[in-house]
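User: New here, any thoughts?
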Amino acid sequence: MSGRYEKKKEKQSGGWKKPVLIVLLVLVVLIAAVVVAAVVYYNAMLNKLNKVEVPKIDYSALATETTEDSTEQTAVTTEETTAPTQPHVASSDDYINILLVGQAARDGETERFADSMILCTINTYEKTLTTTSLLRDTLVQYPQYTDTAGKNHTGGKIKLTTIYHNGYICTRSTADAMGLMNLTLYKNFGIEVDYDVEVDFDAFVKIIDLIGGVNVDLTAAEAKYLNEQGFAAKEGRFHLDGGPALCFARMRHAAGDNDSDIIRTERQRRFLSEVLHRLKKLSLSDVQNIANEVLPLITVSMSNSEITDLIMKLLPILPDLQIVSSGTCPANYWGGMLDIYGDGMQHSVLYFDPTETAKTMRAITKGEGVVPEAE
């Protein structure tokens, strides 16, 4: 009797394992299906972006060789800052530089002038996003450039805004517009661009409308100018939809502006800061719905894997991200007149000190020369 009882008990103890294993297997399959579906959906969303492959720049090969003294000093600094008792010093790995270009062409137009250029520098350690406006009238040296078709290009002095257009007409490709601009920024200012983002006027208007518009503090002169352009506005905190927002961002003929790109770029940085604050308040469902409409309007120089890597770096710091305006590049400049196009006409340009500008921009975009504050 005891033998039969023990045999029956063994049969019962093994009987419950099979259904449990089946349940676990079903759960694993369901989880895997959800993950696969999420990945497929995520990639489908990213594939809505217009992606271009921009010629890669080997910045390390272009950099000026350091002397033995500077190399030794760098080694000492590195050793000191990596010691446990020393504060963290941001390295170049902490910085991500994204060039945002608002290009002037509309649908059907062939021109690709960079109407607005804002460099967004993300410091993932300090959790800051620094915006720097690139002044479009700056007189820069056209670098030797090999386009995506293998053809070489070179030139003399030219306005920065024209660089983007000249790169585009090399091959009628946004990739070369971005590529030539990136090389120009490095050669003239020491800026190493990691990624490029392009938005045209039509896309800008639609994007602002999709996020529900943006609230901006308007001066009396700015409100008056918007009214003169047919957009109802008033001084103080005011809500701007896409159309008036574009007018505000491009404005440089309001009372007191004196056709100044300096004042205009300050408005653009102020507006971009408001946009970023607005985006941080959107719900996940809002972001998803907006992304469906917005992504096809944007051109980027990133692959899906690069976008994913960027997102993974940004997500942990997004709640604490502080937006900072560094001003303009170049920071120190002076105006002049020059027959830049050889047509006998004098055009206004901005001159700058290349050495001082590169020093300033390397500090902003790479942390070079930045002395950490005492704890």
